[in-house]
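Q: Hi! First time asking for a complex rather than a single chain. Here are the components, and I think there are two in total. Is that enough to go on?
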Amino acid sequence: MKKPVLAALAAALATAASAQTLINGAGATFPYPLYSKWFSDYTKVNTAVRFNYQSIGSGGGINQFTAGTVDFGATDAPMNADQLAKVPDAIHVPMVLGAVVITYNAPIEGLRLTQALVADIFLGRIKKWNDPAIAAVNPSTKLPDANITVARRSDGSGTTYVFTDYLSKISPEWKEQVGTGTSVSWPVGLGGKGNEGVTGLVKQTPGAIGYVELVYANQNKLAKAILQNKDGNFVAPTLQATSAAAAGVAIPEDYRVSLTNASGKDAWPIAAFTWLLVHKDTRDPVKGEAVAKFLWWAVHEGQATAASLEYAPLPKPVVVMVEKTIRSLQVQGKPVSIASAH
Amino acid sequence: MALTPAGTTARAGVSNLGDRTWAAALVVFGGAVMVIAGLILLELGRESAPAWQRIGFLRFLVSSDWDPVQEKYGALPFIYGTLVTSAIAILVAVPVSVGLALFLSEMGPRKLRRPVAFAVEVLAAIPSVIFGLWGLFVLVPWLRTTVEPALQSAFGFLPLFQGPPIGLGYLAAGLILAVMILPTISSVTNEVLKTVPLALKEGALALGATRWEAIRMAVLPYARPGIVGAALLGLGRALGETMAVTMVIGNSPEIHASLFAPGYSLPAVIANEFAEATSDVYVGALAALALVLFGVTLILNAAAQLLLQAVARGPRRA
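A: Yes, that's all I need. Here is the structure of the assembled complex.
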């Protein structure tokens, strides 16, 4: 009685498995809303594959990719030399750009900050909102006589990596004392867990200032500071300004490049790529080809979805570079074929 | 199964197959607890080895630097935060819980006892993240605007109540923990109070004691070991609580005498940083913190056991 049922079940599973290839990925939480939309859209384009993505964080993504438990990883902070040494054939493929914005809780419309002001506030040197240095850049605004409370992420995060990378570039003192990392030793401030934790702190604490992702700030209608970029212009954080950051930087072959403090008159100074991590040569021919085709789709059709979900699309020259990279992927030592899908 | 012949009753436990199987199964269940605890310790020891090797046991315990970028790790701010918040929780929760238990078992109007007991049970069933949210949105603003300025103006000369009232910090975390462990302590205390022999109370009343005097002189001394045990259960929960604490403690690895200042706790930092810890030493340092938490819990439990024995001896001497 039991055996035929089991056999039927096994047969059903086998057909399901052969009909759909399951591709496993894990990593960054920041692009997760976009990736899950992409995966569900892509399954309609190519019914032969199905994606399973776990948003466990960039560090976790790198670990799982290194351990070989997933077919692709995803990260907001590029792999460092030590990590690459363990997976020599890892390739970073940029998917979209993200931006980090400075949000604040003070009755100030369109707060403007220079590089020196941002560094001094997060180093704990400027303690009051009506500090003469802030007043000098915001001459037409009445600044409150309130304490500044810095709010930052308590959990290890790619957002913190991008923000501290920016601070390290604009302030030699920050680079010396604190440095760049997913978790750092902050000179001042309170820690909140996740974007929502930082937002909670900022909203709850009069006089607070913190950093969150642009997507999150837009969805929650948070006040965003206008920053002075490398070229000296004051820019507001927008998707266009974020994409402009990638246009102002020479992109290397391996895409492991920091886009913070980029030159360009419209460039938003705290921008970064978010990458998928894949192997240059995949042993499984079905999976290798499926991943390559998906990447091709993501940097073309997928980019329109990105903008609608408030992620900044890759600029054209970068897309051209990525096309070349995808074509260079291999399956069992032979070049992968993408042509059949497009 | 046939009845065991009368002559072999003394050895029935050994000779009977069913009994032997049952005994073996119990050994497996009992042993599993030891094996699992042992495996956890072993694995934590293995994971934390890179950190011990690099930093050194003593330096890890007494250093207050926590800087993943420079690979400097010290456990002291987290140990301090865990101890301070748990101490606040116990100091606030024990008197309230004992009062609550007395209300439920001795003093309260009978009509009110059931609803109040039910409310306490509901409190125990609330997930900790809800306590955290309530803390962040209700307790913290109230502390910032009302309680902390009031404490400061009354006791501002004490180092405990100095510094800017931010709301987030040791005090907020300790108070949240107090609310969370209150149901545990009060319900166990309530059960303990029910075991106090009626004759003791009636004897005290017959000697002319008021209700309060009967409670103070007959009920509480009898129940004291049980109340300490209840506080111990509460302490265990307070030491390990992660989510609610991390939402209101401020998450800053610093040591301050002031209860208004932000701090950090052992479970909170592990939960916050583990997912993004990529280097071996970093993961090792977090595993080492877990071992430290294990150690702190063990030491406090052992100390409490000693206290329990001392307390149990107390009333007999008197």
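A: Residues 2-19 of chain A form the longest helix (18 residues). Let me know if you'd like any chain examined more closely.
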